[in-house]
C-alpha cells in the first residue's frame, strides 16, 4: 500500500472491524492517489473470513491467508464484483445487472462487495438504478464507489454514501517516495514542477517523470507562446493539446502563471518555475485578456466532461479558443 494511504487504510479498516463502516462508501480524491488499490484492499478486508474475529487485531485484517483472501488475490472471488470501463459512460444495464447480483445470496457466506470505479461515469439512469440498492442493500452487501470527480455524481448518490476524502499527500512525502521509486531527477526544481503539473498526484507524477513527459510539456507550452507570432503553428498546437487531457491542464497552469506575472506578483510561487521565460512571454497578453482566456478555458474543460448528451466537438471549440493567441 502506498505510504500516503497508510492512515486512511488504518482508519477504514478499524471501521470495518468495529462494524461501523456504512454499506455504501464513496472514496473521493484527485486522480492518481491509488484509490483503486485502496478500494480493492477494503473489499478484501470486508470479505476476509477473519474480519470481526478479533476486534483488536486490525493489523491482521485482511489476513491474506484465508480462502477468501486467496480468491481475491487470484481475482476469482465469486462475491467480489468490479465495475470498471474505458468507455465514456457506465450504462444502466451494467448497474441493473450488478444490483441483480447483489440481491442474490453470497456464495461464500461473507456477504457481497461491489467496487464501482470512476463512479462519475454512471449515466443518470444508471445512477438512479443504483439508488435503491444503496439505500437498502440486500443481506451483507457493501458497495464502494471510487471517484476523482465526485461533483459529477447525483446528489442522491452522495446522500446515500459515507464519504471519505483521500487528501493530496504532503509534497515532501511524495518527493521522497519518487526518489525511492528511482524516477526523481537530480534537479529539485524539476521534481517540484513535475508535482505541480500533476496537481500533487504521486502516481501521475511518477508516470510523468518515468516516461520523460517533461520535455514534451516544455515544447508544447513554448509552441503555445509562439502561436501569437507564428499562426502557422495552430494545427500543431491544437493536435498537441488534444493528445491528452492533462495537456490542457498544462496550458491552464501556464495561463495562471502568466496572469500572476501580469499582475506584478512574485515569481516565487510560479507553478511552472522552470518555464518562467515562456510565462513572461504569455504575460504580455495583459491581465484582462488572460483572465478572460482562463475563464473560457475552464468552461470549455467542463463542457468536455458530461457523460450524457451529444459529445462536444473538442477540436472545433479548441480552435476557436486558440484564436485568442493568433
UniProtKB/TrEMBL annotation:
Top EC class of this enzyme: transferase
The UniProt entry, under InterPro entries, shows: DNA_pol_HolB, DNA_pol_III_delta_C, DNA_Rep/Repair_Clamp_Loader, P-loop_NTPase
Database matches in Pfam families? DNA_pol3_delta2, DNApol3-delta_C
UniProt EC number: 2.7.7.7
Occurrences of domain DNA polymerase III delta subunit C-terminal (ranges): 214-325
Q: Name the keywords, alphabetized.
A: DNA replication, DNA-directed DNA polymerase, Nucleotidyltransferase, Transferase
Superkingdom of origin: Bacteria
Q: What PANTHER family has UniProt attached to this entry?
A: DNA POLYMERASE III SUBUNIT DELTA, REPLICATION FACTOR C / DNA POLYMERASE III GAMMA-TAU SUBUNIT
NCBIfam families with a match to the protein in the record: holB
Mind telling me what this protein is named? DNA polymerase III subunit delta'
What is the species of this protein? Oceanisphaera pacifica
The primary gene name is: holB
